[in-house]
Design brief:
The structure holds 2 protein chains of 2 kinds. Chain A contains 5 helices and no strands. Chain A is mainly α. Chain A has a single domain, classed as DNA polymerase, domain 1. Chain A is globular, with a radius of gyration of 12 Å. The termini of chain A are far apart. Chain B has 16 helices and 24 strands. In chain B, the strands form 7 sheets. Chain B has a 6-stranded mixed sheet with strand order 7-3-2-11-19-18, with helices on one face. The N and C termini of chain B lie far apart (about 60 Å). Classes of the chains: A mainly alpha, B alpha/beta. Chains A and B meet through helix 1, helix 2 and helix 5 of A and helix 10 of B. Chain A: Keywords: Chaperone, Cytoplasm.
Chain lengths: ~90, ~600
Amino acid sequence: MERQDYERLRWRCIRRALLELDITLTRFLDDGFDQLTEEEQAAFVDLVALEDHDLWYLISGKEECNEDEARFVPVVEKLRKCSVRLAG
Amino acid sequence: MSIPVLKFDAVIVGAGGAGLRSAIQLSEAGLKTAVLSKVFPTRSHTVAAQGGVAASLGNSEEDHWHWHMYDTVKGSDWLGDQDAIEFMVRKANECVVELEHYGMPFDRTDDGKIYQRPFGGHMSNFGEKPVRRSCAAADRTGHAMLHAMYQRNVKANTQFFVEWMALDLIRDAEGHVVGVTAMEMETGQVVIFHTRATIFATGGAGRIFYSSTNAFINTGDGLGMAARAGIPLEDMEFWQFHPTGVAGAGVLITEGVRGEGGILRNANKERFMERYAPNAKDLASRDVVSRAMTTEINEGRGCGVNKDYVLLDITHLDPNTIMKRLPGIREIGLQFAGVDCIKEPLPVVPTCHYQMGGIPTHYSGRVVTPQNGDYNTVVPGFYAAGECACASVHGANRLGTNSLLDLLVFGKSAGDSAVEDLKAGKAHRELPKDAAEKSLSRISAIDNRKGGANVHETRLAMQRTMQNHAGVFRFGDLLKSGVEKILEVEKAARELEIKDKSMAWNTARTEALEMENLIEVAKATMLSAEARKESRGAHVRDDAPDTPEFPNGRNDAEWLKHTLFNPVDNSISYKPVNMQPLTVEPIALKTRSY
């Protein structure tokens, strides 16, 4: 990803409406994002464009991706694992 | 260097609830209105507000604005201005109904009215029994509110400047506010917004504390800009705390955890609440629990390497009960503390939640400062609303659901006042020659400094100083040393250095600029808290205890007054509380007890 695109993405991850997302997404950018495939990175960009509550419910496991969001599934899985692993 | 100038009738800084509400008034009045926001409007922190908005609609049972007024004055521990409070509660119904017309999907009763639920501190008949006064949209009240108001603004042709950061207020030689400077993050370009009205709706600054429920965006930008422009900050010692946030993260753990049998323990595994509240123990009120936790930490019985948190233990509860009665708690523990609360206790600390003080305003939304003996001299061209402003309706302590009401009523009021002032027909005043100078030199200093302070480390030093010296329970000696420490941190914050010098999307630079705002708020808070030698509302001092002469440590004879912190010389002055409502008798002073 180009520097400018990454920095734009970073801003949109570290300044959310909900603290839970600020923390979770900051962690993922620092440890996890680099390991995504190009396709997954593109999915991540679209995923973080979701409204805050919707995104948080997906990451926290309160909700699952619907049929239209199938391409988010691998990224959401990694986000869930990253939050738990790094918190320890 | 030539700086582009964009001319608008009005600029609004911040696109949360207060900003969007005021923008509607201006745009619908046909005025050319710009709204600047660091993020897309529906990503403002208003989204996090779930409780609802208070209005005495009386849909579910009898209610009256006068009862709401009484609750708000009492909640404020009598520090709220009674004219502003009457204004707010009387405007509540109108503002909620307007929001309904904007398309806000409020929860409904069976007969189609707005459903209302009870909320702490809201009572009927002057404190008699709880009343259903809160109007909500499921658990997304703030979010739904922003959506409805954003759509209304789009329809009214409000011009949004998204991912722009306002940098400094522009005042001319006579002190009139004539606009702001702002930076477009995508390009790093600095631009002047030359206006006839400037409205700040920048939200709170909860990130000054180490443990805060506030999202990272709450960096007090409006307060920082006001302070740099020589405008005093009012009642900054008053911050609302919640007893149990996850240590190190700030994410809230609901009080229901203690309700279900959760026990607070110190480093010795002792159930310390037995000593502080032998009967209620862990179910004692918020302030008692927060004070006990702070005392344990201050006396060296905290946990962890820094001994700076206590434990909330539910390992003795049946895992099925935890999963059924406390949904989401296990996930919060796993995600933000790295702890499975079924097997291990959760690390918790009292956590900052809401800023009661701010930029001093009249209830019309006009910013006021003391001048020649008049405490409420209007700063021409300048307005503020929402958490960044201090009208003052929350006084020393805010009631739940009054914050969303605050941003609707005073957002609208600030917008109306600006429209009124602009319709009076004044043209744009001339920009000072050096209008952008302050902002440009701040940026250039950050970009070019060598051997300066690291932004992250400076922010952490500030947050730890605020948490340890001016937290939920305050001690005279700690406040004194806190003043020295925060002035030290301020020196570092004035000497920040960044490695990334690029123009586009330079988040390091943006965070450095945010830090320059945060430190203004932190300093105002610490110095104002040190100076107020009583306990009142959320400002509770160990050396101002509950005595028969001073119930709850409150000393009305000496301290029934608003603090004004002057950022130019770090001096403090005071102004009287307005005890005279608009149309009714004053709510007389009383001990605040529930």
